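Email to the structure team, subject: AraC family transcriptional regulator model.

Hi all, the expression group asked for a predicted structure before they design truncation constructs. Nothing fancy, just the tokens so they can compare against earlier work. One-line instruction: predict AraC family transcriptional regulator, return tokens.
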Amino acid sequence: MISWIQPPRSSQIAKYVECYWLIEKQPDSDSHAFPKLNPESNAHFIISPSNQPYHYQAKSALLDGLGSHWLFPYRETLQLDHSKPFVHLGIKFKIGALYSLEVPGCAHPQLDNVYAQSLQALLNHCQMTEDAMIHLALNHPEECGKMLDQALLPWVNKASEDKHSELTRKVLPLLADRPISELGEALFCSQRTLERSFSRVTGLTLKQCHTMQKLEAMLEYLYQRDLKDIDWVEVAYLFGFSDQPHLIRHLKKQIGLTPQNYAKQRDFTIDVYGGVETQSLARHHSSD
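Reply from the structure team: attached below.
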């Protein structure tokens, strides 16, 4: 398993892109064959070989296809089919970024959807094929990051901002630490105005986005601890639940598992692939 993550180097790109990431499952890997993705409010463009299949199993539908594709924000847990070797190079966009960018062939906002699109169709000025970009990512991660910055720059130069995107950008850093009911006052606008702008830009409510971010932080926290070291009462307190039963109900609703069952199975992507969000480019170099 090779995995790395790195932020954009260009400040212009960093306004819209959170990071670039790479995951590869090699033939001799014995990692979980069907890991799960927890709900997420960011969109990803995933660069893959043209003949490589992808599978996202939702409760009511199978979203599948071949090659590069968009994975738009999704509100329910998805199960992946990673039973065979694969490689994915991803561009993780900031929450609501696609509102300001002109995505060829994609209406906005998109939720709970996977949309097949080649790298050349998305960035028709990019001279590299999927295979060439992935080869660069596997062998020269830093150069790959620079190349992606360069490929996205013409796109970002055409970005269009308005009062809704500006208000959404201001509220996002506040979501983790302030009650949603106080956010309008903090930004000197009515709560109704804030909610409407946020939904217009992201397709999500403030509560939905906050719930996704809290779940991601909780799974990150649990990933760093062995089952024997997890105190569920402490976890409930740390993440703002009234008590342990409240935490149990929340996790059951969000990921379909009780805390204890989740901790035993450890079958989410953060567990299976070592928590790619916590890995740095330096770790990739240290394993060469």
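The longest strand covers residues 17-25. The CA atoms of residues 55 and 64 lie 4 Å apart. Ping us if the truncation boundaries need rechecking.
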